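@here heads up, posting the sequence + SMILES for the NAP run so it's all in one place. Ping me if the SMILES looks off, I pulled it from an old spreadsheet.
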Amino acid sequence: MTSSTSSPSPRIALVTGANKGVGRTIAQQLAELGMTVWLGARDPERGKQAESELRDLGLDVRFIRLDVTDEATVARAAEHIGRESGRLDVLVNNAGISRPWDLPSETAVEDVQDTFDTNVFGYIRVTNAMLPLLRRSDAGRIVNISSVIGSLTAAAENHDPTGAFPDGQFPVILSHSMSKAAVNSLTVMYANELRAEGILVNAVSPNWVPTDANGHSGILTPEQGARMPVRMAALPDGGPTGTFTCSDATGDGLTLPW
Ligand SMILES: NC(=O)c1ccc[n+]([C@@H]2O[C@H](COP(=O)([O-])OP(=O)(O)OC[C@H]3O[C@@H](n4cnc5c(N)ncnc54)[C@H](OP(=O)(O)O)[C@@H]3O)[C@@H](O)[C@H]2O)c1
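bot reply: prediction finished. Complex structure tokens:
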């Protein structure tokens, strides 16, 4: 009599913009859960360096070239992951740019266009290219990295629910805030489209963590900031979809207002 003792095959994840900052920490934590993680990076040198450092920790992390503004690299990445892994269980749309931090009256339209090309159109490009692979998973999960600055409610109330900024001093940054509001909007649209297929789609903020993007200021460590995105990437079947949450110091996470 034969017994089936083989361990289940590891879940397959892709994290965009994972050579540094929040994305790299998310990639590490997903791999520490036993996932095979495709580490997306636009620059091969930076991507391979991060891959090698994480593999030195014994993690199954594989660099893949992926510039979210470049349709051809996105298509090639989808093809490559399909060939090597056969499917995708988890997509973390993380790659983002956040400069310049200009007031609305001082913002050049070109800066808004550039920010949207990465932070919004990049998420759509990658999601649509990876969806055929996510549909081959029996438990597809999409995590869209957002920010409290994308919350229209928080901005309108001039109140930061994370507590990082004092009341009355909610950040006024046109391009970055608008791009994250759009990420929240597209998250709900995809969540509703994919709900019936069991693919869970959520917007998650790492909170404020020190990275190159913000001059290394923040109220959580990158490890704390990655916790909620990782939890939403590893949701069980029937878990929430179309939500907006944030990492916090307790590890429980916060629900953010849209
Ligand atoms: N840090 C925070 O406090 C904070 C708060 C809320 C939300 N977030 C969000 O967290 C995400 C990561 O930010 P971070 O703070 O970790 O910033 P970061 O350290 O600057 O990392 C950004 C990552 O995105 C990559 N990237 C940028 N443009 C790309 C493109 N066109 N194609 C592929 N990759 C690209 C960067 O690659 P290169 O190294 O090649 O530039 C880098 O790997 C962003 O979505 C950001 O909005 C961060």
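MO: The pocket of NAP is lined by residues 16-17, 19-23, 42-43, 46, 66-69, 94-98, 118, 145, 147, 205-206, 208-209, 211-214, 218 (CB under 6 Å).
MO: One more: The helical segments are 21-32, 44-55, 71-85, 109-134, 152-157, 174-194, 222-233.
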